[in-house]
Recover the amino acids of this structure.
């Protein structure tokens, strides 16, 4: 049984097959309307979500199945039942579990069950987002392979999954972060061992110069709200404004996983500008997740 906790769990041809199927779903969302009839997805959210929650629910519906939203406060999990016991019990009811957690180890604990576990974001990784991001590059440029992508900001979960996307899907990635906010060294080492084409710098201009796509994320992720003021000071030079975006290639697109803190990591004129692909990214969540669910559950 396969889980989807990290892009590195899957081979390049498997991920490309998901992207190909996602392209077909984009053209015809109901192409496989009964593929998961009678199947259910449990969705556990330790943190807020707009895109992940709605896109997974819609994806299951388009495949003929159903999804249920479970907050830890409504589950016995909130009263001390273990994650492992929760997973084993849910596995008797549902066909897959998608979870958004703080600690990545909670996702590993969920694999104590007998159904596939999907990472709907942990503090370490956000692989579902990266799938949608790669589909977006493919749609704007015809192919993701060899595309120069600059990520500027915090070396966080979103950045880590882009690093893994470089390893598996041939994106050429330059990451620009302030000192002390670089991506996790183990993530970098594993991705480089798997073939990632990756440059790390502390200079935002060096990261962005000539890139075909410029990506940023919030400076304070969920759970880091108390560091907001400090981070605002540290990340000041990493704001994607017209000047920084202007260093990218003339046909560059702007990417952001959303939600955005406008005025912090990106200004309105860039995120609302003609080269912004952020709504395509958000839409592509549903197409890629529909394809992922079909790959995980469609054959059994
Ligand atoms: N990009 C993303 O995962 O959005 P949500 O937090 O709204 O799910
Ligand atoms: N890095 C952000 C991504 C939100 C989708 C966070 O973890 O809050």
């Amino acid at each position: 049984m396969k889980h989807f906790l990290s892009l590195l769990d899957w081979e390049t041809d498997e991920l490309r097959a998901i992207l190909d199927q996602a392209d077909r779903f984009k053209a015809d969302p109901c192409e496989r309307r009964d593929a998961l009839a009678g199947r259910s997805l449990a969705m556990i959210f330790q943190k807020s979500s707009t895109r992940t929650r709605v896109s997974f629910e819609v994806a299951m519906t388009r495949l003929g199945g159903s999804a249920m939203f479970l907050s830890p406060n409504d589950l016995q999990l909130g009263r001390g039942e273990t994650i492992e016991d929760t997973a084993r019990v849910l596995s008797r009811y549902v066909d897959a579990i998608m979870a958004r957690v703080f600690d990545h180890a909670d996702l590993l604990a969920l694999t104590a069950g007998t159904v596939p576990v999907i990472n709907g974001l942990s503090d370490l990784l956000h692989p579902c987002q990266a799938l949608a991001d790669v589909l977006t590059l493919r749609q704007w440029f015809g192919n993701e392979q060899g595309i120069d992508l600059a990520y500027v900001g915090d070396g966080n979960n979103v950045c880590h999954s882009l690093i893994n996307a470089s390893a598996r899907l041939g994106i050429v990635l330059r990451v620009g972060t302030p000192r002390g906010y670089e991506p996790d060294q183990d993530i970098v080492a594993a991705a480089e061992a798997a073939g990632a084409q990756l440059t790390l710098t502390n200079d935002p201009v060096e990261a962005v110069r000539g890139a075909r796509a410029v990506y940023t994320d919030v400076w304070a992720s969920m759970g880091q709200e108390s560091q907001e003021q400090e981070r605002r000071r540290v990340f000041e030079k990493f704001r994607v404004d017209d000047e920084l975006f202007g260093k990218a290639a003339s046909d560059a697109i702007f990417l952001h996983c959303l939600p955005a803190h406008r005025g912090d990591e990106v200004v309105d004129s860039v995120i609302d500008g003609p080269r912004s692909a952020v709504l395509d990214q958000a839409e592509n969540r549903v197409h890629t997740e529909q394809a992922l669910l079909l790959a995980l559950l469609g054959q059994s």
